[in-house]
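From the shared-data thread, chain only:
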Amino acid sequence: MNGAEALLRTFVASGVDTCFMNPGTSEMHFVAALDRVPEVRGVLTLFEGVASGAADGFARMAERPASVLLHLGPGLGNAVANLHNARRAASPVVAVVGDHATYHERFDAPLQSDIHALASNVSSWVSRPGSVEELPGAAAAAVAAAYGPPGQVATLVLPADVSWSEGAEPALPALRGACGGVDAETLRCAAQVLRSGEPAAFLVGGPGCRSEVLDTLGSIASATGARVICETLPARIERGGGRFEPERLAYLAEMALAQLDGLAHLILVGAAAPVSFFAYPSKPSWLTPPDCNVLRLAGAGDDCSFVVSSLAETLDKTIGRAAPQSRAALRPRQAPESGPLTSEAVGLAVGALLPEGAIVSDESITSGAHAWAASAAAPPHDWLALSGGAIGQGLPLALGAAVACPDRRVLALEADGSAMYTIQALWSMAREGADVTVVILSNRSYAILNMELKRVEADGDGARAREMLDLRRPDLDFVSLAVGMGVPARRVTDAAGFAQALGESFATSGPSLIEAVIVR
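Structure, as tokens:
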């Protein structure tokens, strides 16, 4: 068999059976091999940024790697923003980047570029096999590298002649790394801190945001008085259904500083120490109080469940067990029946109507902030946030999550400005029949940048500056855009109409889009 077929068969043996792609000439043998390896599902996208974001969404929910097929350096360049988000989310992704044939490089053809330089910005592992004999082993190693732990982007550069050459055989799966365990001295220090009675908090992220970890931390918090805070933008957090609900670290630096003020100890569980998203004049970048002791209990590559359970057992000997505090109480859910369509009304409707087992891809930026709080009492669901901060993630992430979990409804809460970065994802949703409800929160403005313009103390509050942050003239017509790509859509302008449209979408299979025109 040729290299491409051996590559795909190695992927299957290693647990990778889905590939999101936007291929070109150099990848045609990979594409042709799909007919001979039907175990691999190919998902076509119209833009590389959709393919990479979808691979991230798949990996976050399936907890195993997806692959993404890209065309040469420019294709990888188009995918980089969402590969950056995948890296920050510790998502296991295998990026296969087609390259010119090995003997063609010296001619410096128009699409020649330094793929390794591009890939190294977002990948922890990069390899370019130089022969068909090397390819299957490199493919197995790429999958193992993507698994981590923690999960990471692994890039396999695939020369065209290595792909088409005959004489390859699939490789066996490569040995994967193991999660880190618990360090006895660190465990002792954490227990000592929690017994001290001094103000302490856990900051959780990554694998620390699974429900069993959060519930255990909730019990520890009840017994010790410690607080539990999750990252501002968790890659995936299990919420609702009476699960323990942590505080969420504020996005704005000054609010986060106030939230953490007075802490003597900050214990990290799957999270990094908090820093401001950006530098601001007259504001600190480091958000932890200067005299606060920061203790790393578990990292993103550690078994957070085991580490936290070990801490609970250590503490149980002296302080006893307690029921988790601050659980989100189940309450009667009622969607708004009248009134203007404000961001608060959107949040209330989401909290009232979100179905059990839903997956929320949240790139709502400013207008969807209320949905987080309102959904705390909803049935059990997963919430996926913009971990890397590079916008254009929300729609592709929803597509990938739907492919990974076809029995679950996906809700994409999407700001109008960021939606336009990867609007092509709608076409792939229609093509795949993905059960995705897309809500475009249309305030017709880069509202987050209007806020940031003031916070960075830029002297730019005049008409010309505001014009650069305004999305009117003309208004974006998301209904026409969606229908043009095969997704049923409607526009709503009041709270009752939004609640009705949302409920009907949740009850209908396949994708649909609701353009929610928010009162400004």
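The mean pLDDT is 92.
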